[in-house]
Amino acid sequence: MLTAIRDRASGWIAWFIVGLLCIPFAFWGISEYFQGEAIVDIADINGVEIDYYEYQNILAERRRQMSAADRDADPAWFASRAFKRQVVDELVRERLLAEDAQDHGYRISDGTLAQYLREAPDFQRDNQFDRELYLSTLSYAGQSVAQFEDLQRRRISAFQMEQGLHDSGFALDSEVRRLAALELQERTAQYIVVKPEKFTDDITVTDEEISEEYASHPARYTDPARMRVEYVRLSVDDIKTGVAPGEDDIQEYYEQNERRYLIPEQREASHILIEVADDAETEGDGDETDGEGDDADAAALKKAEDLLARIRDGEDFAALAMEHSADPGSAQNGGDLGVIERGVMVPPFEEAVFAMTEEGELRGPVKTQFGYHIIRLTRLAPEQRQELDEEVRDEIAETLALQLADELFAGQADILRNIVYEQPDSLAPAAEELGLEVAESEWFDETGGDGIAAYAKVREAAFGDEVLQQELNSEAVELDLNTLVALRKLDHAPRQLRDEESVREEIRERLTRNRARQLARERGLAALETLRAAEGEGEGEVESEGEADAWTALAEELEQTITDLPARRDGGTPEQQEILYEVFTAARPGPADGAKVYGGLTLADGGYAIFALSEVTDADPDSDEGKQAQNRIRFALRRRHGEEYYLNLVEGLRQRAEVRVYGGNL
Questions:
Q1: For residues 420 and 434, what is the distance between their CA atoms, to the nearest angstrom?
Q2: pLDDT of residue 8
Q3: How far apart are CA 43 and CA 662, in angstroms?
Q4: N or C terminus of the chain: which is more exposed, having fewer CB within 10 Å?
């Protein structure tokens, strides 16, 4: 190939090219070609740019985070425009929040930033902040200290804004009680299903109808273009199998990463909560007095002290918690709260728990905004260092092998890219140089395949002009951060319309199935209309024998059993769940005895369900079950409302800002 280039670079053609190159040198000078790569902007926010380097750093960071959280994450998603746009939107949102915080006078102090950096795990060595590691990590990522710390200030500021809005969500008691009553509401209903299979035997599909379907929808009966490729694959996992760290390396890693092998202290506790009763109302004008509040507080404190004394005298803590604790979530478990971590409980409670030093120790009464607590430390496991046993040694060996494989992969990836480009007529040179195997895929099309063809990037490269038409090697395709493949065409089969005779049975089944579903729907709608008419005629009267017979007769005619639906909306089979959704949106039955509300819907499998709703039973939100539901709903509403506040702020900031995203640069 190089010889061909050399041959073409002689004679008048070469002089013509040289003349063209002289023109830009004459106008702009040769120095223009040594000023480095121009900085490409990804977005502009109120005149402030997000450049390509910042975008690429965040993009790589998000890929690493998502890959670590889900080893089976689809690599095609990381390469998609949707993922890239999501990252850009995140950057825009972060910038807008930080700018808004600054406009309102909020600042991230040097002390706050320093504390954040000191505690960041990526910069820890021997259980403390290591400045050399900090600087080398930034250098490896291509960031200056000023750039990185400015980015962290924006992130901390945006996070504080977001967290503050999330924590500001609240829920009204009336709203919580109403939703709890609705969640626990019960409805008495029955249903029958008009099955499409009932009509299948009576349907005849003619040859003319089959031919018409075939002619009208040829795309349904066309085999897509298919390919087979050969490929070489370079992956960190494959390289890792050939490397093995030494014992000295393992020992050094263990000593330098001591913090990773510390098992943190764990505490478990139980409590009994005594609530302070609401202030009693006075006679007359109904005003509340401070004296009554003091009395209520004193009464709660007295009760807590009496219970604490009874426990110290030997009575069972769990039994007393089940009988007296106002915390329904833990009371049913004898007051058990499970593992207590710092920052989870309110400060007075947390201080009491972490001040105890022995299992079984009691503290109290401890006052919080929820009332008075009696606390027992049920388990205390002090911080421990995990020994360098076989399990830890294997884990470190795996980590070191992966690090070494990553380093080797980076160099070999460049070699692979260069060889498949410079010698595009075969994959053999790259395979020989890197010790890789040239493998072959199964047949696949543009929409899917197995093995290597399961990746959208591979299919896109295979059906691209370079591989399909020019029959050259593809470029090295990045399947994920740790895997590259290069491929070339083996076989290709173009799109082809299948012969009508070969698809006649497929068409017959399709037409029969569609017609049966249509007949099931029509029969179900007619039956529903008849039932509603019968209900209307009997309105205001006791349910008639004829009406009851109509419901039963319909089931007998359809050869279906009348089935009772679960009383709650969260029960039943998937089919019943479809019906329950409609049942719980239906109007209540009328006041007359025996009155019913009828409804119907088309199911996912094509059947038509008819239901009869006969009774609605409202729940008591103040029952034990209702109170548990209220606690759950209040927590969910607070989170949802806080999230809405945050999203509304972001949307408002974006609407007021001048934001331009350069999609072509993603």
A1: 12
A2: 44
A3: 6
A4: N
